[in-house]
Structure formats: C-alpha cells, structure tokens
Amino acid sequence: MSSRPIDPNAAFELLRTEGFEVEIHQQHLLVHNIPYVTPQKVVRNATLACLYIENGEQVIAPDSGKGDNHQVWWTGEYPCYPDGTRLDLGTAPQGRELFPGLTVQHQFSNKPFGASGFPDHYTKVTHYIRLIQNQAKAIDRDVDARTGRVLATQEDESVFCYPDTASARSEILAISAKLAASRIAIVGLGGTGSYILDQTAKTPVGEIHLFDGDIFNSHNAFRAPGAASLDEINAKEPKTDYFARKYAPMRRHVISHPYFIDPENVHELAGLDFVFVCVDKGVARSLIATFLIDNSIPFVDVGMNLLLLPEQNSLMGTCRATLVTPEKSDHVADFIPMDSDEEEDVLYRHNIQVADMNAVNAMLAVIKWKQHLGFYQDDTRTHNLSFAVNLMSLNRSPRRPEHSE
C-alpha cells in the first residue's frame, strides 16, 4: 500500500490499480471483500464505505471541513483480534440503510496516532483496511482485500445532472429515496406552483409534469423563485416551457405541457403518483379533484386569500394546503372551494398575491407530500393545513380516522 501523497481525484484509481475491489455508488466509496475476524474468531469478509463527495469535477478530500470526514461504515460484524476481543475503532452502532441497497452495521472513527485526519480517500480506507485485515492475516495469511476484481463504477442514471451532495452530507440518501421513481404533476405554475416546482425539482422524484396554458409575464417573475431576465419576459414563452428550461441545468425529466387541464385532456393525469393542484378556477379545481379522487390518485390542493386592510394600510390573510388520498377524501367539500367561476372571478380579481406567502403555501404542500411518502414523520396525520399570517398560527385538521377522538 503506497504511502506517498495522493491527489484526491486520483485516489480511487490508485485503489483499483492496486487490486482493491472498489466502486463509487450514491456518493460513497465502497471497498468490498475486506477480510476480518468475527467475535467467534472466524475470518469473514465485509464492505467498508465512506463518503465520496464530488464538488463539480473535484473530489472533496476527507477532513476538509466540507462535508467529508474521517469516519467510515462497516457492513459486517464488529472486527476483532484473533482471540475474539474487539478492536478499538471508535465505534458507534449504526444498523441502518445507508442508501438503497447498502445496509451498514457499524460506524468507525479512527485516525493514525498524532494525525489530524486523512489527506485523501486512499490513505483513509487503507488505514482502516490495514487495522482490520492484519488480524485476519494472523489466522489465515493468504487472505487479502486486494482481490483484483474490477467493478463497474458508472452510477445508475440519476435525474440530477450533478450529484445531490446535500443528501449525502446529511446522510439521508435512504430517506430521500422514498421520493424517487415516481411521477408527479403540478397543475398551475403561478406563484405557489412555481415554488412547488422549485422544491420538488431538488428531490429525486422521477418525473415532474407541468400543466399551464399561460405565458410567462413580468408579474410572474415577481412571484417565482429565481430571477428572470428582461429578454426572457419579452420572449412571451409559455410558463411550462420557461420553467422546464430553467431547471434543465439541474435535473432531467421536467416535462412541459403548455395548456390548461380541461374535460378533453384531464385523462392525461391518469397514471401519475401524485398531483399538486394550484389552480384559481373553481370549475377547473372541481374537474381535476373529481378525476383524481375517482382514479385513486393522491393530491394536494392549495389556496391563498390575502386582503388589504385600508385603515391599517397592511395585509392579512391565510394560505391553505389540503391533502386528499384514496383513504380519505370526505373532507374535500369542507376545505377545498369549488365555487362557480363567476363567483370566484370577483374574489380573484381582488385577491393579492405575494411571493413570500406563495412560498409558504408551497412549502406546506410539499411537506404534506413528503409526509404522505414517509420522508417526514407525521404524528398528527392531518389533511388540512391553514396558515394565518396576521396570527402567525398554523391550524391543523382533520385527522385520519385512526387518529380521531
């Protein structure tokens, strides 16, 4: 095992050149088939894993203070000396899924005596391999982690154009995976819908379908995340095309449908796993909600009502996010307004839209979606959230039947 300093970007290739059975998967470096001694004094093999985070085209070195560290995970039993006593590896029990397909049993935290950390991943993993494997060699001198087997290092195709280092650094890849491999839609790309897109685009959800027949105009720019240029506003681009293009540098499979949902095309929502309904027309909301309920497709409907108080020269109001699932839809009439367009047009013409409240509304909707999929814990399991800005209060109702009193 080499002792010379290694360029962090070259560490993986050196490990492979020396015969270690290595691969990079889900922003982790894996070294397989490392011999170790079990507590029963038997030689077995297990996998060592550590963070392998890429920032652009550069690999972040361990102990750089940028997310990586000197810790590793271990898939086997706790490594021991030949007599069955445990090695001192600064262990912390883990017993969890590190990312889909890899379950670890222990986490180790060990550095060479007098060292502040590791300059590269080669030095890091060979340090642990040496400590663990040397004990197995005392029982069987022929065992060696350098199997010479070469593994494919290509990642499975990701929806992201570059790695999601935020989830890797937070060690929540397995939790984030609950959002993957699904197809969602956002119907309506106004202020709230655009913020929902901003949040869902940063998850591993498989496809995001955008439905809206409006053009992206200057008032949309002041109610959407990011900053549109004057040229983009003057282009009079369909909203769905504009947003699909904006998020293309970050992720794949944001699909534009530059038209409104109506009775002739509502069937296009069939087969989706979840829908965010962000429309301001009662007839359209009723059409979409009825179709989704009839086809057992869960959805969140959002709404906002801000009013001007002339005497106080200030605003007050609420925003709402209502979750509807195949298991519970009997609350729809109580919380989702489906007035006629004539009645709603009068209200909407006077309704005020402000980006921060659009963002709050979107966050409530996205959080309910994530709770529905088990990403977030949901102790109250409520189906309607209403935030009042003047009271700074969040009202929750109703609960699922098994949680009702």
TrEMBL record:
<protein>
    <submittedName>
        <fullName>Uncharacterized protein</fullName>
    </submittedName>
</protein>
<dbReference type="Pfam" id="PF20590">
    <property type="entry name" value="DUF6791"/>
</dbReference>
<dbReference type="InterPro" id="IPR000594">
    <property type="entry name" value="ThiF_NAD_FAD-bd"/>
</dbReference>
<dbReference type="InterPro" id="IPR046741">
    <property type="entry name" value="DUF6791"/>
</dbReference>
<feature type="domain" description="DUF6791">
    <location>
        <begin position="13"/>
        <end position="165"/>
    </location>
</feature>
<feature type="domain" description="THIF-type NAD/FAD binding fold">
    <location>
        <begin position="177"/>
        <end position="376"/>
    </location>
</feature>
<dbReference type="InterPro" id="IPR035985">
    <property type="entry name" value="Ubiquitin-activating_enz"/>
</dbReference>
<dbReference type="Pfam" id="PF00899">
    <property type="entry name" value="ThiF"/>
</dbReference>
<dbReference type="GO" id="GO:0008641">
    <property type="term" value="F:ubiquitin-like modifier activating enzyme activity"/>
</dbReference>
